[in-house]
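Input.
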Amino acid sequence: MAERASLIQQGRQYDAEIVGCYFDSKLKDCLNRNRQRTGKAKIPDVGLYATLKKLVQPDYAEGFHRLFHVAIGADGAFDVTACRQDVKEVFDRSSPPAGAMVHTAAQLGRGLE
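Output.
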């Protein structure tokens, strides 16, 4: 979170729109994808465990203008959900919260232009 704070502050100084995306990844899935990699693309499993410990879901209170939850859908495509500002988002890693807007990754990209 501290790592994000300085970037958010810098963006605010330039009146930038601060947009955050939380990539919801299950450790089991990450380990499986990593096992399929070769060469420099493959990292030691300990790197995945260490990164998981550091992950902190972003919150509007940090200064974000918009937040999105990103998960890999059953078809392998990204499912992007806009997080409501009036609700403290806690994802159960299986479905977006009630009232959330679900977008495809392509739709999200168009919305950021």
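Strands lie at 19-23, 66-72, 78-82, 101-104.
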